[in-house]
Amino acid sequence: MKTKILALALIAVTAIGIAVFPSIQRANAITPGNIDVVNPQKHRIEVVFILDTTSSMSGLIQAAKEKIWSIASTMASAQQNPDIKMGLVAFRDRGDAYVTRVLDLSEDLDSMYARLMDFKAQGGGDGPESVNQALHDAVNRISWSGDDNVYKVAFLIGDAPPHMDYQDDVKFPETLKLAKRKGIIVNTIQSGQQRETSPVWQNIAQLGFGEYFQVENSGNSVALSTPFDKKLSELAASLEDTRIFYGDLKQRKLQAQKIDASKKLREELSVSALARRSAFNATASGEANFLGNSELVDAISSGRVDLDDIADEELPASLSAMAPEEQKAHIATQAERRDQIKLEIRKLSSSRQRYIEEQLAPEATKDSLDEKIYSAVKNQAKTKGLIYESDRAEY
Question: Residue 104: which of 118, 88, 117 has the closest Cα?
């Protein structure tokens, strides 16, 4: 009798296993559509630049405009392909055109960068600036994640100390206590060599559990041009042509802003910056910036969305005019073309980086803005499980 019961139990367990195992396999399959389910602890970086935009900062602001894509690519070079959000707090002083302007964290680096390009170095010229207000806004008006596993970092970049004589603002020691509670590291990069700035910048970095660096007013910018830049910039435009946006009126407005930002970058960025942007967009970390909201080719090819479930009025006119089978064939063609372009970008980007490493000795770049930021990120991000193997930044 016991033998029969044991046999029946084994049969039941086996039957359950046969029924359940395929669903377990499907749940554990790594596909673009469910990758976040497989790896819920996706590594993330949130970085905010707190940038003095007064007249004396014109050289470094221009360097920052050229280098943001290099910085983004450097951050993306971690083994774990982190998701990256960037934000900006621009500041001047009371009596100038503005005290602070805040651009919140976003994965849409194109739109954030398009806004950065509009900032001009003006005002100032009278010593201390509203550094206290800038730090306070960076900690309190930016939508930082509450997740302790996220690497949250701010870079304060400027050349003048804070006004400590304003009676109605929050002084930086109090703000940095709150930054610590939120898990935000604050680094300082001093532009130029004003003696009265150095000890304050060092103190802010110490209280912010960050690092202090000094660069020249130019940002020690390294001018780079490679034989691969023009082709990479052309491939970036071709890659963007594979995007098909869909959705309701609100989504289409957001998409139009994204397209306008991409167009602005293509018109105003240098060829070398466009090359670096194309390299970033072809990485896993740059995918969110490239795709934006409600991108159809990725949604369909990943299996997250079924084309039959999308209303005709939510499709672009060029696609809704096609028969269903033509629509599917067109989307499949765009997906294949996208994969081929990304592969070519990655190959050319690797060749570009090798070329740069051959042309530029480490001594030539060790004092650059790129290297200062990379050294801080490399040291600090490992506490959040992010590993950077390279000895130098991406360019």
Answer: 88
Domain segments of the chain as ranges: 44-220+362-384, 229-359
Would you place residue 26 in the very low, low, confident or very high pLDDT band (cuts 50, 70, 90)? Answer: very low
Pick the CATH number of 44-220+362-384 from 3.10.129.10, 1.20.120.1760, 3.40.50.300, 3.40.50.410: 3.40.50.410
Dump pLDDT digits (tens) for 216-241: 876 666 667 899 999 999 999 999 99
Task: Round to whole Å and give the CA distance between 248 and 59.
Answer: 43
Phi, psi at residue 294, to the nearest 5°?
A: 55, 60
pTM: 0.84
The number of residues in the chain equals 395
Alpha helices, DSSP H, located in the chain: 2-28, 35-38, 58-76, 109-116, 131-140, 172-182, 198-207, 229-240, 249-268, 271-281, 287-291, 296-301, 317-320, 324-359, 362-365, 369-381
The string of pLDDT tens digits covering residues 315-328 is 999 999 999 999 99
